[in-house]
Design the sequence.
């Protein structure tokens, strides 16, 4: 894959194939479950469920689709995909990946959280978290909250936090043809989750729960995705919300799928997930992004080249391996000083600069050259 940067603008197009089948049938099932719940609770059903309309932003910067102002067009399930926390995670929250089952082979803990993504079938969203490497997964940990958006504002669930909550857990290959998850691996597991309350309040109002799930049978995937979604077995006005990680945006961002539209998008940050099991690759490092230079005006004849490096192999404390970039047909190689720990990331700025002063589109590729690397395509 290549990085293009230019002195103008670039438009990107991407496609996403939903792992779900007929979306009309799914919507029909949702409506029937909603009707049964309303009859049970004595709730008057809304007249019509409207389609998605234009997005709005609340005072906290949350983007949502509001309900109609008329009763006849009231939305029963508003399209609301995330909740931001104006109260940042504190240094003593202790929402780190536990080491009791062993050192995690993939660690995106919730310490430093700032958002919670909607991952509930009643809200119409599923979330996936990607990872790079060849893992045999035996156990996962994640953090979540319960909340609901009534078309006007977020709030705690009226009936209290839905514990236990049924969560559908899925495993997917990577989408080699584009962004996001690809083919489903095995079958979904529906787990009745009773999380452990952490005592930490997201946005000062929603308790964060941690859950540990041991798989009934291990799953082995290379460069895969783990998905979570709350199932409609309980209160449809109480949504499962997956808390994010404070890790920087990169190749392992979360992916949120709009079930009704059958489309998905990069969330711009990872969600909290700790994976335990076996890392089947010893040597596997790569470049996840070129962060400098970036497209824009005023590029100079001495632009620094900066890359993000990751180590998804089990080899620890790697030093001195070559990193390189190719620009205008010339390849520049320098030693990365390290150390780069197993599961770790780092940035490296090359000493050799590039001349990007002339207006145009430039192609720059970057990679690592670690002897014995099992995946040589981990470059950009």
Sequence:
């Amino acid at each position: 894959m290549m990085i293009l940067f230019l002195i103008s603008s670039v438009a990107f197009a991407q496609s996403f194939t939903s792992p779900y089948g007929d979306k009309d049938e799914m919507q029909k099932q949702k409506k029937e479950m909603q009707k049964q719940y309303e009859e049970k609770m004595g709730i008057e059903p809304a007249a019509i469920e409207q389609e998605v309309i234009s997005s709005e932003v609340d005072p906290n910067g949350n983007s949502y689709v509001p309900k109609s102002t008329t009763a006849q067009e009231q939305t029963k399930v508003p399209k609301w995909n995330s909740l931001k926390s104006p109260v940042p995670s504190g240094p003593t929250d202790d929402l780190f990946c536990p080491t009791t089952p062993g050192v995690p082979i993939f660690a995106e803990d919730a310490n430093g959280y700032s958002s919670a993504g909607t991952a509930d079938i009643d809200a119409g969203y599923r979330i996936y978290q990607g990872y790079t490497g060849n893992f045999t997964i035996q156990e996962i940990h994640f953090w979540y909250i319960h909340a609901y958006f009534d078309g006007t504002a977020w709030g705690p669930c009226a009936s209290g936090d839905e514990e236990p909550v049924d969560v559908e857990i899925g495993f997917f290959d990577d989408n080699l043809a584009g962004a996001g998850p690809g083919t489903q691996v095995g079958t979904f597991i529906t787990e009745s989750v009773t999380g452990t309350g952490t005592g930490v309040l997201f946005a000062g109002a929603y308790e964060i729960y941690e859950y540990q799930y041991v798989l009934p049978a291990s799953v082995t995937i290379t460069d895969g995705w783990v998905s979570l979604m709350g199932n409609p077995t309980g209160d449809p006005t109480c949504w499962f919300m997956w808390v994010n990680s404070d890790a920087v945006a990169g190749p392992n961002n979360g992916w949120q799928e709009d079930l009704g539209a059958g489309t998905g998008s990069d969330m711009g940050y990872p969600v909290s997930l700790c994976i335990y099991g076996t890392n089947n690759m010893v040597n596997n490092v790569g470049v996840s992004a070129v962060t400098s230079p970036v497209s824009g005006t005023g590029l100079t004849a001495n632009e620094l080249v900066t890359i993000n490096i990751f180590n998804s192999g089990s080899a620890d404390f790697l030093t001195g391996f070559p990193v390189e970039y190719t620009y205008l047909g010339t390849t520049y190689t320098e030693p990365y000083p390290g150390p780069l720990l197993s599961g770790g990331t780092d940035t490296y700025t090359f000493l050799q600069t590039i001349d990007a002063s002339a207006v145009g589109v430039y192609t720059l590729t970057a990679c690592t050259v670690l002897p014995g690397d099992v995946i040589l395509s981990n470059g950009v």
Q: What stands out?
A: The first strand starts at residue 3 and ends at 6. Residues 1-24, 40-79 have pLDDT under 50 and may be disordered.
